[in-house]
Amino acid sequence: MKLSRVFACLSLLLIIGVGDSLPQHNPQVSQMVTDFGMKVFREVVQTSGDGNVVFSPYGIASVLAMLQLTTGGNTREQIQAAMEYSIEEKGLAPALRKLYKELMAPWNKDEFSTANAIFIQRDMELVQGFMPYFFKVFRSMIKQVDFTEGERARFIMNDWVQRHTKGMISNLLEEGTVDQLTKMVLVNALYFKGQWKLPFPTKGTHHRLFHKSDGSTVSVPMMAQTNKFNCTEFLTPSGHYYDIVELPYHGDTLSMFIAAPYEKEMPLSALTNILDAQLISQWKGNMTKAPRLLILPKFSLESEADLKRPLENLGMKDMFRPGQADFSRLSDKEMLYVSQALQKVKIEVNESGTVASSTTAIVVSARMAPQEIIVDRPFLFVVRHNPTGEGLENTRWLPIPLSCAPLGKSCLY
Ligand SMILES: *[C@@H]1O[C@H](CO)[C@@H](O)[C@H](O)[C@H]1NC(C)=O
Ligand SMILES: *[C@@H]1O[C@H](CO)[C@@H](O)[C@H](O)[C@H]1NC(C)=O
Ligand SMILES: *[C@@H]1O[C@H](CO)[C@@H](O)[C@H](O)[C@H]1NC(C)=O
């Protein structure tokens, strides 16, 4: 089984298994979180063309859950409709917290951590009771920063991200992304370091040709090992076969699943279009252990996705519109909207395992007040006939000296 065809195209970081591995978790909640994250992933793939995409479904689901609590009206309804759940539904927040705890439980030698943060402009007047309510739902404290000191605020947030991704993502918010108008930033950070249960022998790694989707080839280092793997094959609704192989990590709670179409020319979209939590658990449920020679690229990837278009395509339009976004549950004094939604991911896959990190952020800004023009000084005016572009005095412009219009009276020549 050669997996070179799927190389570096699409990867999903942390799909929460439905009904397997994690003890006593609520399968519905993990399925909802995963399915929503996958929906966003499909949109990201569609808007990103042929590039490599690494995506963290859990990250986007986490920040949008926080966003739900700050929005009202249509803005909130659109988010809930796309996510297909309300964070305020009975029992949901506790189930999410439980899931989070299980994800964070120590797994032998594998390391996994994730954290959410909400940064709010220090002196913003919040709706009464927002802070304790937010704490009640998410059990996480609101961090107050001063965005008017843009660089300092950016440093504080980037530092938080860097610490929670063990240094892998050091510059989440680039220069100029935080300014006087920034009022809130929601962030999820995720870090994973897993060792293969069946490591690849380093001497088995050689350069081989990798076939890109455009028909060209590149020579890349590929790892190889012969072993008994859990594998299966499936058929897409469009009639294409693909192989699936499971690469478990050391602690046996996490695995990487790799799906590769048989035919080189089959577009990966045939797979991504049908991918959801249930399909992945069907893969897992249909696996059998069989000896295979597995050849897999050794790679590291960085990907950055602007989530605005993908989220809009899923119906969450109002939050991006300064005139329509409704953040009335956060603040009824400020007119706010989502000015940016982004995700950065880094992943490295080699003979010993995987190191990966992702950060998802939503930046909420105040609507810029319309620029004022107050004519309270002497002014100059020109009367111009627009169709001809001529001043009314035939071809001559008619500038009126500043001093001529003292109290806003028109000066007639
Ligand atoms: C194969 O799947 C079974 C059942 O989930 C699991 O116990 C086993 O560790 C897996 N083995 C490999 C090599 O993936
Ligand atoms: C195996 O796959 C089929 C679809 O091909 C699915 O209907 C079935 O539920 C799967 N079995 C398990 C145990 O997941
Ligand atoms: C794989 O990558 C990790 C993290 O960068 C590194 O610690 C490890 O030594 C690498 N293993 C091999 C075999 O190159």
TrEMBL record:
PROSITE patterns in alphabetical order: SERPIN
Main subcellular localisation: secreted
Signal peptide residues on this chain, from the entry's feature table: 1-21
GO biological processes: angiogenesis; cellular response to lipopolysaccharide; defense response to Gram-negative bacterium; dentinogenesis; negative regulation of blood coagulation; negative regulation of cell adhesion mediated by integrin; negative regulation of endothelial cell apoptotic process; negative regulation of extrinsic apoptotic signaling pathway via death domain receptors
Record's subcellular location: Secreted
InterPro entries: Serpin_CS, Serpin_dom, Serpin_fam, Serpin_sf, Serpin_sf_1, Serpin_sf_2
Database matches in Pfam families: Serpin (PF00079)
GO cellular component: extracellular exosome; extracellular matrix; serine protease inhibitor complex
Family of the protein in this entry: Belongs to the serpin family.
Name of the protein: Plasminogen activator inhibitor 1
Organism listed in the record: Monodelphis domestica
Record gene name: SERPINE1
